[in-house]
Amino acid sequence: MKRILRWLNDIKLDKLLHFIAGLLIAQISYALFSIGFVEWLSALLAFGTAACIGGVKEMLDGVINDGVPSLSDFLATLIGGAIGSLVIVLILLI
């Protein structure tokens, strides 16, 4: 248990925000896509949307304000999008 708490304390706020952003993008995207698509496709499109938005944001970091694109930021967004989509799929299976 101490290892898990230590690991959680080591997560930087920036990565947590990227994770939350990916999760929210996937959830909101699913709500929008589910209007016109079947559920499994909506969940897949929601994950893809989170991945695309995270990737574009990191590419723009390299252009705007002399920022530095970060693979770890992109991965945090991607993981958030994956978990957001997975939660939807699990809810649909119940």
Q: What does this protein look like?
A:
The chain has helices at residues 2-10, 13-33, 39-61, 71-93. By secondary structure, the protein is mainly alpha-helical. The chain is flat. The two termini are 30 Å apart.
Q: How do the helices and strands line up, and which of them pair or pack?
A:
Elements (H helix, E strand, L loop, with lengths): L1 H9 L2 H21 L5 H23 L9 H23 L1
Tally of separate helices: 4
Helix/strand order, N-terminal first: HHHH
- Rg for CA atoms: 15 Å
Strand content bin: under 5%
Residue share in helix: over 70%
The count of strands amounts to: 0
What is the molecular shape?
flat
Query: Which stretches are low in confidence, meaning pLDDT under 50 for 5 or more residues running?
Result: none
Structural class: mainly alpha
How far apart lie the N and C ends?
Answer: 30 Å
Mean pLDDT: 90
